[in-house]
Task: structure prediction
Amino acid sequence: MQDWESAEVENVEKEKVMILKNFSDYYKNAEIEVPAVEQREFGVGGFKKKIESRHMGFKTNGALKNYLVQDAPLYISHSIAYYKFPESTPMERKEWMGGDLIFDLDVHAGMFLTAEEIEHVKRDAIMLVEDFLEKDFGVSKKDVTLVFSGGRGFHIHVKTPRFRYLGGDERREIADYIAGAGLDYKKFFGKVDKYRMGGPKKSDWGYRGRFCRMVEKTLEENPSSIHRGLKKPEAKEKLLGCMDDGNWSKTPIKDIIERLEGAAKEMKLESVDVDTGVTIDTKRLIRVPNTLHGSTGLIAKKLDKLEGFEPYRDALAFGKEPIKIRAKQDLPEQEFANSTMEKIEKEEEKEVPKSYGIYLILKDAATLS
Amino acid sequence: MELNFACKYPFTEEGKQAIKENNIQINDEITERGVKRIVDALNRVQRTANPVHISDQLIEIGSYGAARMMLAHLRNRYLSNKFAIAEAKKASSLMARETKENIKRLQNELGVVPGEFEGKVVVPLEVYVKFSPRSVDYRLINRNVKEGHVEVSRREVLRLMEEAVKMKVEDIGLFPNAPEIVKKYSVKLMKLVPKTAPSKMSFKEGENPPCIEKLLETAKKHENLGHQGRWTLAVYLINKGVPYEKILQIFSNFPDYDERVASYQIKHAINRGYTVPSCGMLLSYGLCIAECKIGNPLRWKTWKRKK
Result:
């Protein structure tokens, strides 16, 4: 065990010591509660890598917390899986006993998440939970844990026995469904008999229903993008009628399926860009909720709701007391900790609130001065 | 009646019970029949034996157990998969003309229990993704999904049940101390296995994109592949200039391989000069497994070199 206060770390740069001390202090009062902690594998990372060692285990949440206070790792993740022997290696010896279903939503952000990026990823997370998990998959809210990743997005943990034993291929079906990957709207149509063509209707579930809503919207906003004739109310009515009962032979437009390609593309907007690689990996390690993210110093915070959440206000682990930093690059004006941080020029030294200073140092945009 | 059910569906609890209650012991006759069961599976001969005599029924049930013992002893994935597919197909054709009551029993046993939701026949989503065949028509994204229910037709329920049987039969544990009789007949069985399979696939690591690697891996593991997967693999290999004989050899690894059909299909694809489906198409088939964004699997090598 490494003790950040011991003589061994004396040579470590003061910056690293400062960060580790603050991380450790945070963990003294943090609420860390991993469900079925004794069945999880843990991995930790430091200044070099996000995961430097894994195959660790903790018998209780208390033991985990003690470790966090003592060692203050920059990153800590737990397996989405439950194992009989979480510390055993190789992986097969752990004996997999199922795992949570996880979704990772990220935006490709620069130094800071912009307000638009935050709104975008929040909108996606809400859509994922409300439209897909609840409406389509019948997951109850109590089985969903929302977590700010501490970086650029959200992690959504689904803990329900229904999905616990799904393998990677099965999880891919779910992830692809949410991401709208490989959606072929032409598959919604098919001949019912010699004369009638069947297709989606408004009352249909899932993407079929979504598709009809998109067609309806296009008919309202820009009907001629489908067909010139649809400007006439009676032609429009006929097409709307198709979606009432799924009888698509009612419209006289022969190549209607091809013409709806535009509306189908819009449907992509109704899907959520989840990272499939994360969802299908049944042995994935995921950041422990309420621990710190070593690239930002922000809390990977467990959230009750997404509405109103602001990462640079609500996920701060450190106080406002000033620390002196030297910028390694030009830094723009930025909202942080309920204040406006002024512009800082490269090489400029400045006193900033600790949470902001640590953020910049961990982002490699500043050093402790 | 019960014995009749166990005889038709020996993979069920009733099958196990029948062995126990009737004290069916492994013997030459039963094991011989077990060998035949596996050989029939290899040769794609479907025998839906429905013996009336109790003694014949007991042998029939026992032969399933003996076949599994031999497969557990041999640990030959090719044979096990072939056997599982044949047993599942056999069960499926029996289920198609089964009584409602027996279908219900099977559904409970297999964990494929359809229900009704908003007037539609549905199965739970987790059951659907577990047992649906990996083909584009069964992709979740193309289905009617609501509140954890997936709409299915009666015919599709049977297909899910068939897959569930396959998975159940495939699941063969270890059998470290096989009795002599099992060992003896296992040797006999191996002599009857056609020499054509399994074959080697000598591709260098990283030579093919991840999606194709996965398809080749499926062949290597002697697992079945849906139509789109098989077609993609064939067309890719053809376009890569792999000779016809080698492609056929690779295809011989699939448990439901039929040389006549496979050779016709590969030749047909060569003659028609099909182009490799784009990454977008592979995505819609559910075969895309990485985000290489190369547009077409054939661009893999050029793209890798540039990288």
